[in-house]
Amino acid sequence: EMHFIDDFNQDNILREYISDEEMYDKVIERYESKAEDEKLFIMGITMQNHGGYGQPYDNFNEHIYKVGTSYTDANQYLSLVNESDKALKELVTYFSKVKEPVEIVFFGDHQPGLNSKFITMLNGKGTDGLTMDELEALYTVPFFIWANYDIEEMQIDKLSANYLSSLVLKTAGVKLTEYNKYLLKLA
Fold first, then answer.
1. What is the Cα–Cα distance from 187 to 96, expressed in whole angstroms?
2. Whether the Cβ atoms of residue 134 and residue 142 lie closer than 8 Å to each other
3. Alpha-carbon span 183 to 187, nearest angstrom
4. What is the pLDDT confidence band of residue 167, given thresholds at 50, 70 and 90?
5. Contact, 106 vs 168, CB < 8 A?
6. How far apart are the first and last CA of the chain?
7. HSE-CB for 96 with a 13 A CA cutoff
8. Helix (H, G, I), strand (E, B), or coil: what is residue 5?
9. What's 36's DSSP letter?
């Protein structure tokens, strides 16, 4: 199955995109409509926080102003992240109460493109003159794996996205292919 923007409630748009809340409601709806013996793998790609962040929107109240009026793009982005956090909390709360084992993997594909003055405010030098480690940090995104059952708790400092699927399968207790085992040895 594939679902696109027209398959979602068009009343739940944030800025120009389907809200994370609407996406998660669709995931829950699909879960609740599955056959009793049906196994689901759902890959949901949200767009709510997709950039740019400089334009005001009538359907989005930017109420998180953590970095001041000089950084309107960062303020909008942080306000969007706040909305994402609330929606994710609802998703996790829902699945924490279901009886079947559920694993949620949350990751991004890139950091937001924010005004270079904001980057300078954060690190004191902008993007010019960054060390390799500092430059690499600009291309690093966090991820987490949550389950409604006991899984091994771990902290992973860095993991390339091409290894994430193997880690997810291992965490879920799914039998790994030789390829997945190989990838985990490389990671």
1. 29
2. no
3. 6
4. very high
5. no
6. 31
7. 7
8. helix
9. T
pLDDT, residue 40, reads 94
Q: What is the DSSP string of 68-136?
A: -TT-HHHHHHHHHHHHHHHHHHHHHHHHTT-SS--EEEEE-SS-----HHHHHHHHSSTTTT--HHHHH
- As a whole number of angstroms, the distance between CA 176 and CA 169 comes to 7
Q: Are 67 and 74 in contact (CB under 8 A)?
A: yes
Q: What is the pLDDT of residues 6-16, one digit of tens each?
A: 999 999 999 99
* CB distance 135 to 111 below 8 Å: no
Q: Give tens-digit pLDDT for 56-115.
A: 999 998 887 778 888 899 999 999 999 999 999 999 999 999 999 999 999 998 889 888
Tokens linked to 19: 């809200």
CA angle 142, 139, 16 (to 5 degrees): 75
